[in-house]
Amino acid sequence: MKRILPPLNALRAFEAAGRLGSFKEAAAALHVTHGAVSQHVRLLEAWLGASLFERHNRRVTLTPAARAYLEQIGPLFEQLAQATAQYGVPEALSRTLSVNAPATFTLRWLVPRLAKFRAGHPDVEVNVETSNGPLESLKENYDVIIRGGPDTFYGYAMRPFLSEERLPVCSPALLERVPLRAPGDLRHHTLLHTSSLPRLWPDWLASVRMPALRPAASLTFDHFYLSLQAAVDGIGIAMGPTALVADDLAAGRLVTPFTGPRLASRSYCTYVADAKSGDERVALFRSWLESEGMDA
């Protein structure tokens, strides 16, 4: 009896988009373009003669019939992956370690150190994706997830590797233009804020008993790394996380005008699913992070 099968690439795109609820995320998971996923889905819709998704602004949702279809074919993809694993995985894929980490941490701490890991472990390919969302919102099956902590998540093993505090930082050139000898002198400066952490400056000013201090100006950014870059460029004074500005302090790009007080902050931790705890690549990467964290 002849098998009637839909276009398999189109079926793969549909499964990923339906599972993730996004053409963009499906494209990232499949390592293709957003347009390729859309084209494959349209091809499958034409082949089936039915609409599969309801398109919204940033997300897509399955039609009731498509959801039932996905519930039937989804387990088949998992069975296919398991059956294929019995015969080995291509070498390039077996060496790839997928990591998800916050953007500012990745840019200012992880990326400058990755060359050291690659030099010590040239057989391990590291694929880093950035996200600031909570761990439970991630839809990809990452090998190592880096987030603040320590927190407890069911099914995940947590290990801290890097601690930090927060205190004001600025460029030495800024201090040459406008001296900063005491916290009260902040009224002559621009304070740099991050929208996701609005309490940093108010909490620090409260700790020096100047909660009502009004700076000469304030500037707010939507990402922490932008406020830190603005500090390096001499635009103003940022609340710098010690771990993420350590390299800038050592190089003289930033200075700490005050020795304290320092605000307590959460540690950086690795979260690894229990099913991946025995993976040698995961163990190597976690141990390397912990070694680097001790040296920071």
Give a summary of the structure in a few sentences.
The chain has 296 residues and is of the alpha/beta class. It has helices spanning 8-20, 23-30, 34-48, 64-85, 91-94, 103-120, 172-177, 200-207, 224-232, 242-251, 280-295; strands spanning 53-55, 60-62, 96-101, 125-130, 144-149, 156-162, 165-169, 190-194, 217-221, 237-241, 263-264, 267-273. This is Transcriptional regulator GcvA.
Please explain how this structure is put together.
- One of its GO terms (molecular function) is DNA-binding transcription factor activity.
- It holds the Pfam family HTH_1.
- This is Transcriptional regulator GcvA.
- Keywords: DNA-binding, Transcription, Transcription regulation.
- Belongs to the LysR transcriptional regulatory family.
- Helix 1 (8-20) packs across helix 3, helix 1 (8-20) packs across helix 4 (64-85) and helix 2 (23-30) crosses helix 3 (34-48).
- Strand 3, helix 6 and strand 4 (125-130) form a beta-alpha-beta unit.
- Helices cover 44% and strands 20% of the residues.
- It starts with 7 loop residues before the first helix and ends with a helix.
- The protein has helices at residues 8-20, 23-30, 34-48, 64-85, 91-94, 103-120, 172-177, 200-207, 224-232, 242-251, 280-295, and strands at residues 53-55, 60-62, 96-101, 125-130, 144-149, 156-162, 165-169, 190-194, 217-221, 237-241, 263-264, 267-273.
- The protein folds into three domains: 8-85, Arc Repressor Mutant, subunit A (Orthogonal Bundle); 91-163 and 267-295, 3-Layer(aba) Sandwich (D-Maltodextrin-Binding Protein, domain 2), CATH 3.40.190; 165-264, Periplasmic binding protein-like II (D-Maltodextrin-Binding Protein, domain 2, 3-Layer(aba) Sandwich), CATH 3.40.190.
- With 296 residues, the chain is α/β, with parallel strands linked by helices.
- The model has no long low-confidence stretch (mean pLDDT 87).
- It has eleven helices and twelve strands.
- The longest helix has 22 residues, at 64-85.
- The strands form three sheets. The protein has a five-stranded mixed sheet. It has a five-stranded mixed sheet with strand order 9-8-10-7-11.
